[in-house]
Design a protein that fits this description.
505 residues, alpha/beta, Beta-Lactamase, Rossmann fold, Helicase, Ruva Protein, domain 3, 4 domains, five-stranded antiparallel sheet, 21 helices, 15% strand, elongated
């Protein structure tokens, strides 16, 4: 092909000699060529017809204003130079012909290319004090170098360096955005971060690990502050920490935007839509997990649209015409009884059975008070770092108070109480009773009073049961009847109070 390009350059130089370069057309070029030229052109084109488009493309190649074109003979004497290069060297039309290349460009590589027969590609060439990128190729016929053809990019090397620098900057921005996206859609906690010594919590961890291993959808139920999101992140990280973990705070999504948030939309889908469209949460979660916090708060209209997504893992964007198959795991949480919500008509029954087939029920803090000392030690360490305090422990009075309190806000409320107590006390190594808020102690006093009343009531029950058994000579059926209890309740009380009839008593 290089020989053909060289010939086309010669055709152009013929036209220069005719003095018609400025008004040159392909028709004029063809008229300026002899039959041998036409024969070579026809042979070069092969099966291609010399159409007007191809003719114009060849003409553009000869007059390319973005790159120079230079042709020398085997001695390095210029046979053709494009008009732009001639202007660069202050030459008129066709005046470059017959000049040795080294007179115009002392460090040109053409002599070396002609001598070795090897091309020189991408070499930096200084022209008129400006660095440019050049290439030179040998023209070989029957194994003999008969000339050379060269090209120079008119843009300076500095311009390319600027483009390269800009490209690097853009790549860096993309890398930063991707890292930011990974941080945004990343789960932080693992099962090792879940603290507690209670058997009920350990059972929840074991069940969660099994669910994480099989990568099934999970519903996590529990009161506010029991650590539902902590378990959700741990489940995700157990099977793939590098995959996206997309959080959706269901109560915070505006009703009118819920569909676009979940499914995304195509550009121009509605008034005010982004020109580039938007990915939905499910699409972002593809390959990872989508965490639907407090799914019970979603309106029924959205619940119905989510059902198909949960079943088929297919999403259709707003304004779109095709569905997209996705792969993600659903981890949903609820702080209410979804079965009661189904009965009340606020949660779809079919959606409930879809997500509740594998569920975890996190116990409230009041049912695992043995974990409270562990939490106190851990959170005091974190609070000390934030506040600059130095508390090491809580007094026995505080521990007893915490053990009796109901903790409606669970662990989250415990953290809040500890922070408030540290700010109130500020100095010291041990949190004492006077550092706790008054409402906590007043509540504790009520709990204590209630506990004493309950103990008195239990003692009364024990005394009545023993007397009934003694009066009936140990006949449990008659004793239950005398006390007005069902037999099942009576037997439950005997077991609860550890009462055994002894005639000698």
């Amino acid at each position: 092909m290089s020989g053909h390009l060289a010939f086309l350059s010669l055709v152009r130089s013929d036209a220069h000699r005719l003095g018609k370069a400025k008004s040159l057309t392909w028709r004029v070029v063809m008229e300026a060529a002899d039959r041998q030229h036409l024969s070579i052109i026809s042979k070069a084109l092969g099966q291609y017809e010399l159409t007007p488009l191809l003719s114009w493309a060849l003409r553009f190649f000869l007059r390319n204003r973005y790159e120079s074109l230079l042709l020398t003979d085997s001695e390095g004497v210029i046979q053709f130079m494009d008009r732009g290069s001639e202007k660069l060297f202050g030459l008129g039309d066709g005046e470059a012909k017959g000049i040795h290349i080294n007179k115009l460009v002392p460090d040109a590589v053409f002599p070396r290319v002609l001598e070795t027969g090897y091309a020189s590609i991408g070499r930096v060439l200084n022209l008129k004090g400006v660095n440019k990128i050049s290439s030179a190729y040998p023209l070989v016929k029957n194994g003999e170098v008969i000339g050379s053809i060269g090209r120079v990019l008119f843009h300076s090397l500095e311009e390319y360096e600027r483009v390269i620098s800009e490209t690097k900057r853009l790549k860096k921005e993309v890398r930063v955005l991707r890292q930011r996206e990974r941080r945004e859609y990343r789960a932080l906690y693992t099962f090792e971060d879940i603290m507690g010594n209670s058997e009920s919590l350990k059972d929840c961890i074991k069940l969660s690990e099994r669910m994480a291993f099989v990568e099934t959808d999970v519903l996590i139920a529990g009161e506010s502050g029991t650590g539902k999101e902590l378990f959700a992140q741990a489940i995700h990280n157990y099977s793939g920490p590098d995959r996206p973990f997309v959080r959706v705070n269901c109560p915070a999504i505006p009703f009118e935007l819920a569909e676009s948030e979940f499914f995304g939309y195509e550009r121009g889908a509605f008034s005010g839509a982004s020109r580039t469209g938007k990915k939905g949460k499910f699409e972002v979660a593809d390959g990872g997990s989508i965490f639907l916090d407090e799914i019970n708060s979603l309106p029924l209209s959205i619940q119905g649209k989510l059902l198909r997504v949960f079943q088929e893992r297919e999403v259709e964007k707003i304004g779109g015409t095709k569905t997209e198959k996705l792969n993600f795991r659903i981890i949903a949480t609820t702080n209410t009884d979804l079965q009661q919500a189904v009965k009340a008509g606020t949660f779809r029954e079919d959606l409930y059975y879809r997500i509740a087939k594998t569920s975890i029920h996190l116990p409230p803090l009041r049912d695992r008070i043995e974990d409270i000392p562990v939490y106190i030690t851990h959170f005091l360490t974190a609070i000390n770092k934030r506040f600059g305090t130095d508390f090491k422990r809580a007094s026995e009075e505080v521990l007893k108070c915490f053990g009796r309190y109901h903790w409606p806000g669970n662990v989250r409320q415990l953290i809040s109480v500890l922070e408030q107590a540290c700010l109130e006390k500020w100095t010291g190594e041990s949190l004492s009773k006077d550092a706790l808020p008054d409402w906590l102690w007043s509540t504790e006093d009520k709990v204590t009073a209630f506990g004493r009343a309950k103990e008195q009531l239990n003692e009364t029950h024990k005394s009545l049961i023993r007397k009934a058994l003694k009066d009936t000579n140990g006949n449990k059926r008659q004793a239950a009847k005398a006390l007005g209890m069902s037999r099942s309740t009576f037997y439950t009380k005997l077991k609860e109070y550890n009462i055994h009839y002894n005639p000698s008593e």
